[in-house]
Amino acid sequence: MNIASKSRIFRSTCPHDCPSSCALDVEVIDGGRIGRVRGSKDNSYTAGVICAKVARYAERIHHPDRLLHPLVRKGAKGEGDWQRASWEAALDLVAEKFLAAEAKYGSETVWPYFYAGTMGQVQRDGINRLRHAKRYSNQFDTICTNTAWTGYVMGTGRLAGTDPREMAKADCVVIWGTNAVSTQVNVMTHAVKARKERGAKIVAIDIYASDTVAQADMGLVLKPGTDAALACAVMHVAFRDGYADWDYLNKYSDKPKELEQHLQSRGPEWAAEITGLAVEEIEAFARLVGTTRRTFFRLGYGFTRNRNGSVSMHAAVCVPTVLGSWQYEGGGCFHNNGAIYRFDKRELTGEAYADPSVRWLDQSKIGRVLTGDAEALAGGPPVTAMLIQNTNPVNVMPEQALVRKGFAREDLFAVVHEQFMTETAELADVVLPATMFLEHDDVYRGGGHQHVMLGPKLIEGAGEARPNHFVFEELAKRLGIDHLPGFGKTERELIDGLLAPMGETYETLREKGWIDVQPDFETAHYIGGFGHPDGKFRFCPDWMATPAPNSPPGSLGPQGPATRLPAFPDYLDLTETPDAEHPFRLATSPARSFLNSTFSETPGSVKKERRPEVMIHPDDAAALGLEDGAAVALGNHRGEVHLHLRISDRPGRGTLVAEGLWPNGAHLNGCGINTLTGADSIAPYGGAAVHDIRVWVRAL
Question: The whole model's pTM is what?
């Protein structure tokens, strides 16, 4: 007799590195398997909509290729010769190797390395408690947010902005520097609502005709890295044609008269030459936003991928300030809401043990660090032991030839805690199976909205998979630091500590699902003044001294060519400029069905994306004698990548676009797209310019 399966619906939160941080309704079947995953209709930001890849999450969490048991390397690195081990034996080995490395070179030889494979506060950031307690090398986070956050805060003084739900109340929504259809689906939910209910216009600004540009009423496709020129021209028109709000400027900004004077030579003709846009396109955009007071500027993370990204972001956030858009409901600007949250993370991260004398290593320069570059090593010992969680550096980090060379070192002991046998795990000495978000407890915050959200454990981990927190705690016991404050607590106890400033606990948040911590209108719109000490928006920022959410530690100092940054918003050509040998600009843009290297193992996502390809304009392909589908090589001084060509009118002439971070092994020569990207620092506070690459193209 067949017994019908029983299912229940539980609330959860998407853990992945996306500003949407969607509230989820998850079907659990017979207490042990995941069924349908939907967006919660009760959450005012998610509004019932999630991306297709997360909707298929059962395909990922129950994937037959998940890591299920600890493994210890037997043969040479990368050969795939593994021996199954118990958790006890594997962790004993890790502790033994870490202690031996420390005895030989000092504690800084060990580098705990992580990033945002989960955005859960406990499972992601608890690694720092282990780091600080042992005085292991610090990690300076540079791969994602630095450049955009820095540019935004240089203007506003605070990493926060207009309530993103107000997009639905706008008369014009400008989606700039993000392909929201592919990477932030809920931005489109609220923008399209404004169009349907208010007749609002949607403007999309990108470096190719993305899916978002295709859905917009006005699409502006400019050359990579030229956003600041467009912003300057729009402000020029605003001053020229009377769209600038002088009452607002005189009250809320630092040097509006000087800005107007500075921009007199930076009109649409000047910007057209730089951006590749037509003068008429620039004029039309400037007129639209200049005559539409309720214009909402939604600025994305595309700014953070270029060597002039901080300057570009600052210029873009200056536009709504010149127009006075901040004053209106449905107007203003938003990038990230990081400043509104009040988590107490001191116990979680072991802040009390942090020693300012311990060196900092740039996560984006891992290739240089692991191959012995003295500058990258900050004058300290070699890195000979690593714990890696929540990231796949052998695929996602710049300068892949160096990264792979570093991981191939026989004197490097690497332990990787992972869900699948990634290309980083393949080069490890010990591989530990990790849980997914529905298999452990955690708490989240929405960078792209205003909710604190719970992700409770709903099912048991697959096989012997264990959470990150388990690894921290078990290593602490073996390394002799488990007696220190913060260790010996459960995930739920740490969550209670995080939530205490908000008067919440794990249990109260589980009952509610999420809490809305959006500031009031006056705070979000800076009606009482901007975040700088004098309350003024900065058109003329102090690039070297203004605090930012992730400023480099004092021991590292300003990053990149910081002294070249302009006094006022301006186009600054710090990019990797094409030349005769490398005539093309390559951008490694996100794919709709992948999220960095995550989901590239999921059959549904792989089927949607097909294979690694690079898009090229038809005229460029014709000039090179290349046909659609041809196998080609892209190259520069860092290496070569072999993949297939897709002829498309989506990029402009001279621009190439490779969507999606495919595994290295999916490419024809086994070298992934980050073989071509550089790790040199972005001014003024660091970052990685993974959309800012010059290359040549040749037929294979």
Answer: 0.96
